[in-house]
Amino acid sequence: MTALVLLDAEDGTIPQTSRSAIAAAASLGDIDVLVTGGPDTIAAAAASAAKIPGIRKVRTASGEAFAHGLAEPLAALLVALAPDYDHIVAAATAIGKSTLPRAAALLDVQVIPDVMEIRDSQTFVRPVFAGNVLVTLRSSDAKKLLTIRTASFDPVAAEGGAAPIEALTPPDGQQKSRFVSAEHSSTERPQLEAARVIVSGGRGLQSAEGFKILEPLADRLGAAIGASRVAVDSGFVPNDYQVGQTGKIVAPDLYIACGISGAIQHLAGMKDSKVIVAINKDEEAPIFQVADYGLVGDLFQIVPALTAALG
Amino acid sequence: MKILVPIKRVVDYNVKVRVRRDGGGVETAGVKMSMNPFDEIAVEEALRLREKGVASEILTVSIGVPQAADTLRTALAMGADRAILVQSEESPEPLAVAKILKILVDREKPDLVILGKQAIDDDMNATGQMLAGLLDWPQATFASRVEKTADGLAVTREVDGGSETLALALPAIVTADLRLNEPRYAALPNIMKARKKPLETIAATDLGIDLTRRLAILSMAEPPARKAGIKVGSVAELVEKLRNEAKVI
């Protein structure tokens, strides 16, 4: 059997999320990866992909249509390549979640999103009801298209391989959507999905100004900063900070929840963290039911004290 | 412009679901059901486009059990003009839903279909993209802002590193994310008026679509519960535990 893994390589690098998708596909036979991007980034992205160990072949498609990860050309490309593969896999990132269902419909296949365990080539476990239920599914489709819940799979190494690179000629297609602009949150911190430590804030931070109290703590720990839905909806931080059912799903070694009550939809995004610390003034807050270590009190005193104690 | 908004009846988001003893599904007997929250956002966005003079007619569709008619009445009470219920015994998978919706799109010829980005029961996040594929229409998933432009739509989307804006030609598919808008409540007079709005019922089996599941459910289970740990009394104790017991710092 052979699997094709679509990588998120548009910026010329291979993110950890894509390497987790490769790790998930490892039990599905030989692995080819598909690297796409604009003419400026494709060479660097292909070279990075070729270094990943365990890859049979790197296939690349380049052009303006592929510069921004638009679902339409990517899905058309996956459909064109599909006859060579039994499984088509991508990380459950914005690009994977947009592209694979579209490609699946074109192949008359029911996509299987957010796979957290691969039992065998046709049997998969995925979360439903905000992660409160796990369902085991067996696909009767001849071909399987999956997106991978990256927090459930340790990424493969970035270096050590030397796979051959093959440039593809992508199918022609009429462009009905066009990239206009991007507003990326600039940050020097690790990406949420890749961070070993996450410091996360909720309603208890009270304001955008209040939220800044987490920054020295995150600096000290080399942590990414996350947020609950309330903190994002209240405008304390941008939307891509959100951890939860509809935000990022994370599983760091250490998750420090500050002023987060622990709504079901937030827990769905972080309860697989190895160690959870909760700091909250409400000792009845549901977050304490999943926390390994809870500290009841005023976070505006505790967080600076914790930062100082780690110094 | 005519807008189609597909909506789904789901277990209310406040309900803590329980797996049935036979492991074949979750308990729904006596459980509160509501419109999928992302679909409410989709309905609201269609209403706002009509209020801006961009849309002229809003058609809403639900696929499911007869009680899904109640969900459609909610959308009508919010302000949708008419509704179609495609009745089926169980909830079809997104691929079958997309095929049913394609038939309705071919019949109704909307210029725009707005869907919730995912249903909060199966969390599939697939129907909009699958419909876009079947129709060969452009798509913008996870929308946080929708603007009509001279030649189509400008849609801002929530993506991994922030947000991005796409220009779409019409007809098009948009899926709604949380921050697109805050849906209105249906006022009582509008709930009364909604009872008189047209609601057509079609049997899913009459549409000639194979509704057989492609993904057989082998089992459902609640994940192992994470057990609560301990409360520490001070920052010093916390740091000590993280260093020497958990060994994560």
Automatic annotation (TrEMBL), chain A:
This entry's comment on the bound cofactor is: Binds 1 FAD per dimer.
Q: Which UniProt keywords apply?
A: Electron transport, FAD, Flavoprotein, Transport
Renumbered to this chain, region (Disordered) spans: 163-185
> Which CDD domains does the record associate with it?
ETF_alpha
* Record-annotated Electron transfer flavoprotein alpha/beta-subunit N-terminal domain positions: 3-183
Cofactor(s) required for function per UniProt: FAD
What the record says about family reads:
Belongs to the ETF alpha-subunit/FixB family.
Its recorded name reads: Electron transfer flavoprotein subunit alpha
From which organism does this entry originate?
Gluconacetobacter tumulicola
TrEMBL record, chain B:
Q: What is this protein called?
A: Electron transfer flavoprotein subunit beta
What are the protein's UniProt keywords?
Electron transport, Transport
**What PANTHER family does the database record attribute to this sequence?**
ELECTRON TRANSFER FLAVOPROTEIN BETA-SUBUNIT, ELECTRON TRANSFER FLAVOPROTEIN SUBUNIT BETA
Q: Which residues form the Electron transfer flavoprotein alpha/beta-subunit N-terminal domain?
A: 23-211
Q: Specify whether Transport is a keyword of the entry.
A: yes
Organism the protein comes from = Gluconacetobacter aggeris
Tell whether Transferase is among the UniProt keywords: no
Matching Pfam families: ETF
- InterPro entries in UniProt: ET-Flavoprotein_bsu_CS, ETF_a/b_N, ETF_b, ETF_beta_N, Rossmann-like_a/b/a_fold
